[in-house]
Amino acid sequence: MEQTHPSSASPMRLSTQDLAVAGVFGALAIVLAFTPLGLIPVPNPTNAATSLHLPAIIAGILAGPLVGGMVGLVLGISSWYLYSASFIAFADGNLIVALLAAFLPRILIGILAYYAYRLLRRWPALAAAVAGLVGTLTNTFGVMGILIWLGTLPVALLATIFSMNVPIEIALALVVTVPTVAALRAAGKGQIAAARD
Fold it and tell me: Residue 10: its pLDDT value, please?
């Protein structure tokens, strides 16, 4: 694959640096998935709020929507490997619904985070915060939304899950995303794909 300078790469073309970012953040997603660092215990039906979506958010901002989607796919594969039985149970035994819930929102996390940052790139701190918020809500509302929309999860569970999970996951996304993106911006001008004009 041809190496391109990051500042000249389009969002849908991968440079060597993009592949490195995908590898590093994909590995981080796997580490979070297979250790207690990825799940924060909370007293609700899922028993946990997640930090698993954070690598996909940062990878999307840093290297573009394709890399963000790739890291999200790694998250989806890891989640399916660990929790396929839970996905199938929540999907009322419907394998297609379970696969949609496990993969589609995870792939979209980094993609939507990239575009959220891009819209507000003139204000980097605000852009990083909004990207963290969008990525987090894509994960939570995406997974639960698919299960509810396709009729396999009761709507009554929403209030409990969202009141326990969403505030923790948003706070975590803001605490991690804003300083991480600020540090990456300071380390190398033009290295943030979502910040390029």
Answer: 56
Q: Give me the domains of the chain, ranges plus CATH numbers.
A: 15-38+48-195 (1.10.1760.20)
Give the N- to C-terminal CA distance of the chain in Å, as an integer: 25
At residue 51's C-alpha, the angle toward residues 179 and 91, to 5°, is 145
Give the model's pLDDT for residue 99.
92
Q: Is 12 helix (H, G, I), strand (E, B) or coil?
A: coil
Question: What is the chain's mean pLDDT, rounded?
Answer: 86
pTM (whole model) above 0.85: yes
Average pLDDT, stretch 10-24? 82
DSSP secondary structure letter of residue 26: H
Burial of 12: CB neighbours in 10 Å, binned 0-12, 13-18, 19+: exposed
Lowest mean pLDDT among 30-34, 89-93, 158-162: 158-162
